Amino acid sequence: MPGSRIADLDTTPDEALLDVRNLRTTFLSSGGGVHAVDGVSFHVRRGEAVALVGESGCGKSVTAMSIMRLVASPGKITGGEVRFRGRNLAELSERDMRKVRGNDIAMVFQEPMTSLNPVFKIGTQVAEAIRIHKKVSRKEAWRMAGEMLDLVSIPDPIKRLDDYPHQLSGGMRQRVMIAMALSCDPELLIADEPTTALDVTIQAQIMELLARLQRRLGLAILLITHDLGVVAEFCSRVIVMYTGRVVEEATVGDLFASPAHPYTRGLLRSLPSMAKGEVSGTAAEADSSYNPPSGRLPTIKGMVPPIDALPRGCKFNPRCPDVMEICLGNEPALMAVGEGHIARCYLHGDEADPERMGS
Which residues of 214-242 are buried (b: 16+ CB within 10 A; e: fewer)? Predict the structure, then answer.
């Protein structure tokens, strides 16, 4: 049948800046190990914006922390590769990895107040981030800190250097975190839910800022989010995760027009529309049987299962509206459903994942 072949995950574009291959991150306990990230593969090209999406608990943030080698104990990378410009970061010493963080890959987290030290001035913290990676004087670092605040559109940047974090709004604090992340000219920025703690208006401003910086600096961006509305405006490709696995990957246009996995369709149906009681055209077209009660958004039934109690077969089968008997056996492989479009679903073939046969 069309789309029934297993996707070739070993094909990576020559221009890929970040190449994650079969990444597995395991959390060890007295009862054994559980895989928070299980066989994840994807790439990010130079200057490209790619989204990792899914509900809370799907493994998005652990994937990002694994790339940065910041997974806290008892978590550990137990398999796969994380290649940045050809070097496998998983094999680097901690000393060499510290040189990669900030200089080559930087990260912005969702709650800036937990990342900024409340007892130090903004300028001190940005300047310190610069001095860690660049051999400059304190005076020069302070001057560069002012330039970075100006870059992220903070009004009166020189004056703001003397402010403390509590004197800034949430949106301004997030701009400071972006300034710190970009202060050493990284090629890749990982943004982990950068707008979650902000109101809608400020969210739009932060995403507009990131888009402008991406164009100006030629940044590659890996955006971790659960907000598909943000993805539609900002990213070129989308990777959908569920229970630590990639379940679908496609360009933004293909994903919104023709979502191939039932989980992705559920996420799209939950997007609010401008008209009360209606879903957006792309989501409605993805499932013509959808007929929501007036004024209410649909939800995906159930919850993401805990990683130590995953169901047999397809991990989405307890929540899936299209579940079949084959879904209860072995886990499906990622199947090619179109050019650059893959999905882990038996709706597109009957191939089981050979690494999880009998699981």
Answer: beeeebbbbbbbbbbebbbebbebbbbbb
15 vs 347: CA distance, rounded Å: 32
Q: Give 22-52 pLDDT, tens digit per residue.
A: 999 999 877 788 999 999 999 999 999 999 9
- Nearest to 122, CA basis, from 152, 162, 91, 83: 162
Ranges assigned E (strand) in the chain: 16-29, 32-45, 49-53, 75-84, 87-88, 105-108, 188-192, 220-225, 237-242, 245-251, 335-338, 341-343
Contacts of 205 (CB under 8 A, 6+ apart): 171
CA distance 149 to 220: 20
pLDDT per position as a tens digit, 245-260: 999 999 999 999 999 9
Global confidence as pTM: 0.89
The token duo for 134 is 């660049």
| Measured distance CA(27)–CA(348) in Å, rounded | 32
Q: How many helices and strands (H and E) does the chain possess? A: 12, 12
Across the chain, which distance is largest between two alpha carbons, in Å? 68
Record the tokens describing residue 295, joined without a space: 């004024």
